[in-house]
Amino acid sequence: MQPSPPASGAAAPSAPSHPQSPRDLFVSFTFLALQGFGGVLAIVQREMVEKKKWLTPE
């Protein structure tokens, strides 16, 4: 089964951007690892999806 195409008036989701360097990726994931356990998912959502736009909300 294939997904239906988006409606003609719907905005297409933008493609995620990429880390500028391996160091940027390392620093970001180190920051997330140091945040602890349990509350990390909300921080991942904010950092990786909303702020840096490396991932899509899906």
Describe what you observe in this structure.
This protein has 58 residues and is mainly α. The protein has a domain at 22-51. Helix content is 43%, strand content 0%.
Descriptive tags:
single chain, 58 residues, mainly alpha, 43% helix, flat
Total strand segments: 0
> What's the mean pLDDT score?
77
- Rg for CA atoms: 15 Å
Poorly predicted tracts of residues: none
Note the run of SSEs as H and E: HH
Q: Helix proportion of residues, in percent? A: 40-55%
Structural class determined from secondary elements: mainly alpha
Strand content: under 5%
Output the number of helix runs: 2
Shape: flat
**Distance between the ends:** 19 Å
Largest sheet: none
Q: Secondary structure elements and their pairing?
A:
Blueprint: H1 22-34, H2 40-51
Summarize the structure in short.
Helix content is about 45%, strand content about 0%. It is mostly helical.
